[in-house]
Amino acid sequence: AKVGFDWPSIAPVLDKAYEELAELKQAIETGDQREIESELGDLLFVLANVARHTKIDPEQAVRSTNLKFERRFAHVEQSVQGSGKDWSEYNLEQLDLFWDEAKQLEQK
User: Fold this and answer.
1) What does the alpha-carbon distance between residue 104 and residue 108 come to, in Å, rounded to a whole number?
2) Cβ partners under 8 Å of residue 3, min gap 6
3) Burial level of 46, CB count in 10 A (0-12/13-18/19+)?
């Protein structure tokens, strides 16, 4: 970026992120682990550039998201335990309802 090898605005960076995500999807479909790793690396690199262009610390963003996940998952755990049922009695769709409930509680 210091020598001018940089995107002029955020729009082309986001376009590149979508491009890299599509390439990752294709690599996953082939099952080629080496290619998946390469494309995932490319996507992460572009996302780091999104962070740079938006002046967001990517490590702090991930930390914040991890904490948010932990809070929401704790709600899911409490909901399952409070129901008296075993985890195996719930499918993902039912667990997602607890997750959505946790999101709604955070917004209040």
Assistant:
1) 7
2) none
3) buried
Say if CB 15 and CB 25 are below 8 A apart.
no
Give the tens place of pLDDT for each residue, 25-84: 999 999 999 999 999 999 999 999 999 999 999 999 999 999 999 999 999 999 999 999
Residue recorded with tokens 């899911």: 76
What distance in Å separates the CA atoms of residue 65 and residue 106, rounded to the nearest whole number?
13
pTM of the full structure? 0.80
Rounded alpha-carbon distances, angstroms, from residue 19 to 1, 2, 27, 95 = 21, 25, 13, 32
Distances (CA, A) of 2 to 9, 36, 52, 93: 15, 30, 13, 48
